[in-house]
Design goal:
Number of strands: 28
CATH class of the largest domain: Alpha Beta
Number of helices: 8
Helix content: 10-25%
Distance between the termini: 39 Å
Protein name: Pyridine nucleotide-disulfide oxidoreductase
Number of domains: 3
Pfam families: Pyr_redox_2, Reductase_C
Keywords: FAD, Flavoprotein, Oxidoreductase
Strand content: 25-35%
Organism: Sinosporangium siamense
Shape: globular
Radius of gyration: 22 Å
InterPro entries: FAD-oxidoreductase/Apoptosis, FAD/NAD-bd_sf, FAD/NAD-binding_dom, FAD/NAD-linked_Rdtase_dimer_sf, Reductase_C
Largest sheet: 6 strands, mixed
């Protein structure tokens, strides 16, 4: 039976679009409406801090699908439109362009960048979360020589690497004394710091920006140790916040994301996928919210299956992550909580090409690859199957 109002998906990035595409390719016959706040066709976000920042790609290169494919799938794209509220009783999404009724709702609104605590905005101060952010930043870099990046996590590291590729002098500031590189930061921080410094980045770890310098345009920043860093451009990459403000008063459970069950259900016929979704942890204790593209894709496929069949799909999604800095491919697969050591099982760490098992005690909880992608793929497959070929270890995939 065809749904009366169909499925409304709020969020037109990879999680939202993958849900829509999977629904249609899976035989769903109802109307599919995807609401996107940005005016652009759906695009991949990882290239923003990689190829687009480096000037190697345009928006078209990062597009998830061409308009012809979207049209052929029968997906209604409502772009340049922001969701402003949700009435769960009436099954209505309120938007800046009016109301949208739904039979099923998928929330894929992602996250927004946290900004530096500056009361009045200064020219030259940027974040990097959207295509328009990337366009504004790259335009500003044309007349810049020195850039300060506030936030030494994955995004900050990728931004620093992209700026170095453009020939700029980069200072990378981080609150922690280590590089907070996702789940594997504790295992790889010294190696990551060395990689940054070998490529000319000035690291200022264990510090944070207290205030920005400049009147109308940023001229630098004062750090928490009282030192000053001169900069023509400052990029804030110090974390993100789930886009759930429009759900206030909806009755849904909101706390650092939208709480769901293991199938992504926040309420009857209401689901969440991607960065905004908070799900029960695989350990059975607590909850987790994963900000990575592959996680969003897998959650979207599962939710589409649930909507299409009426039966909950609750896959055990093991986090997978990758990044690239200065031509070095970094990959990780597993759940790294408690991992304290890395046992090299392929390649040579001294040569900068290796695959390692992340160990919690004597138990392997994940696989890490450093510039050895083929061996990483093999080790990941062996790790998932519990193969003894990569070490005499007990495996917890």
């Amino acid at each position: 039976m065809t749904a009366r109002h169909g499925t409304v998906i709020v969020g037109a990035s990879i999680g939202g679009f993958t849900t829509a595409e999977s629904l249609r390719r899976g035989g769903y016959e109802g109307r599919i409406t995807v609401v996107g706040e940005e005016p652009h066709l759906p695009y991949h976000r990882p290239p923003l801090s990689k190829q687009i920042l480096a000037g190697e790609w345009t928006h078209d290169d990062a597009a998830i699908a061409p308009v012809e494919t979207i049209s052929a799938l029968g997906i209604d794209l409502v772009l340049g439109t922001r969701a402003t509220g949700l009435d769960t009783g009436r099954r209505v999404v309120h938007t800046t362009e009016g109301e949208l009724r739904f039979d099923s709702l998928v929330i894929a609104t992602g996250v927004s960048a946290r900004r530096l605590g500056q009361r009045s905005p200064l020219a030259g101060l940027h974040t990097l979360r959207t295509l328009d952010d990337a366009t504004g930043l790259t335009a500003d870099l044309a007349g810049a020589a020195r850039v300060l990046v506030a936030g030494a996590g994955v995004l900050g590291s990728e931004i620093a690497a992209g700026l170095v590729k453009r020939g700029l002098a980069v200072t990378l500031v981080g609150r922690s004394r280590s590089i907070r590189f996702g789940q594997v930061g504790a295992l790889l921080s010294p190696r990551l710091a060395d990689l940054h410094e070998k490529n000319g980045v000035h690291l200022r770890l264990g510090l944070h920006v207290v205030r920005l310098l400049g009147t109308d345009r940023v001229a630098g920043a004062v750090l928490s140790d009282g030192s000053e860093v001169a900069a023509d451009v400052v990029v804030a990459a110090a974390g993100s916040s789930p886009r759930v403000e429009w759900l206030a008063g909806s009755g849904l459970r909101i706390a650092d994301g939208l709480w769901c069950d293991s199938a992504g259900r926040a309420a009857k016929d209401i689901y969440a996928v991607g960065d905004v979704a908070r799900r029960p942890a695989a350990s059975g204790t607590g909850s987790t919210r994963v900000e990575h593209q592959q996680n969003a894709i897998e959650q979207a496929l599962a939710v589409a299956g649930t909507i299409s069949t009426g039966f909950p799909h609750s896959p055990d999604i093991v986090p997978f992550f990758w990044s690239e800095l200065y031509g070095t491919r970094i990959q990780a697969y597993g759940r790294f909580n408690g991992a304290s050591t890395l046992e090299v099982v392929a390649g040579d760490a001294a040569e900068g090409k290796f695959v390692g098992l992340a160990l919690c005690g004597s138990t392997a909880v994940g696989v890490v690859g450093w510039n050895l992608p083929r061996a990483f793929r093999e080790a990941r497959a062996q790790f998932t199957s519990g193969s003894p070929d990569i070490g005499e270890r007990q495996f917890v995939p």
